[in-house]
Specification:
Layout: H1 3-48, E1 58-62, E2 71-75, H2 78-86, E3 90-95, E4 102-106, E5 131-134, E6 144-147, H3 166-171, E7 174-179, E8 183-195, H4 197-200, H5 207-210, H6 217-227, E9 242-248, E10 255-263
Parallel strand pairs: 6-9
Antiparallel strand pairs: 1-2, 3-4, 3-7, 5-6, 7-8, 8-10, 9-10
Helix pairs in contact: 1-2
Length: 265
């Protein structure tokens, strides 16, 4: 083997080793992050079973119409009180039974994407934490857009991609979304794959929501149903609050998977 060929071969070997080290390191980081989520879940369950909360923890929440900025104190559910003390960006918790989706939901209204690459404790994180991209978890009205990464190891919002199958939807039709003070239940009625242009261009179906505006719900629901991957035979009341769960689909560049739900209780 010539000297030049040896140099090239050596370079390739080093490159492979470097890539392997990076991949192994990333997998270890992801496992550590999921272990942290496991500890957060344990804290929630532990607090839920406690009976010695003598001093209720309260936070402010918006009530009434969207344009009404009236605030009132509300008691935080006991299972989230300790976590809220650790990080006041905690807005609630999302779960979908029978899936890997079981995570805290974060909200930072001054920097919407703050938790895109940060963990619950605000450290750098490859997987981040599901967060409120549009809307306000402290409000009783208006649409909510929750964003989460689609991780190759099946964590975070990766299971949303399974909703491309109608059979999967039939087995997992409900989303449980807790606010700090209430347990909410949502039903999935539409699943879409859409381009990121739907958020960035003025003609996009989600542009108005990002801009702090929204169309009438009956028109929005009709459009969502028309663009859905499959028919669910569910048409929500046009006065309900809609919840959008969003992640990357990776089937096409810039494409997003959107699972749309309406509040049922």
């Amino acid at each position: 083997m010539r000297w030049g060929e040896k140099v090239i071969l050596g370079g390739l070997v080093l490159a492979v080793i470097s890539i392997t080290v990076v991949m192994v390191g990333r997998q270890l980081d992801l496992k550590k992050e999921q272990d942290t989520f496991g500890m957060l879940r344990e804290k929630v369950e532990e607090q839920k079973n406690r009976s010695d909360f003598s001093v209720p923890l309260t936070v402010e929440g918006t009530t009434g119409a969207i344009e009404d900025d009236t605030r009132k104190k509300r008691i935080v559910l006991k299972e989230y009180q300790e976590l809220y003390k650790e990080n006041m960006d905690l807005a609630g918790w999302i779960r979908i039974e029978g899936t890997n989706i079981d995570y805290p939901v974060m909200q930072n209204l001054t920097d919407r994407e703050y938790y895109l690459y940060r963990d619950f404790y605000k450290n750098d994180s490859y997987a981040g934490v599901p967060f409120v991209g549009t809307g306000d978890m402290n409000s009783e009205e208006g649409p909510l857009f929750l964003y989460g990464h689609n991780m190759k190891n099946g964590t975070m919002f990766a299971d949303l991609l399974n909703y491309q199958s109608k059979d999967y939807w039939e087995k997992h039709p409900e989303v449980l979304l807790d606010t700090l003070w209430a347990h909410r239940q949502y039903k999935i009625f539409a699943v879409l794959r859409v381009s990121e242009k739907e958020w960035s261009e003025k003609t996009g179906m989600f542009y108005f929501d990002v801009a702090g505006q929204w169309k009438e719900n009956d028109l929005r629901i009709q459009e969502l149903k028309e663009r859905a991957i499959f028919e669910t035979s569910i048409i929500p009341n046009d006065q309900v609050s809609l919840l959008y769960l969003v992640t990357c689909s990776y089937q096409k560049k810039g494409e997003r998977m959107v699972v749309v739900c309406y509040e049922s209780s």
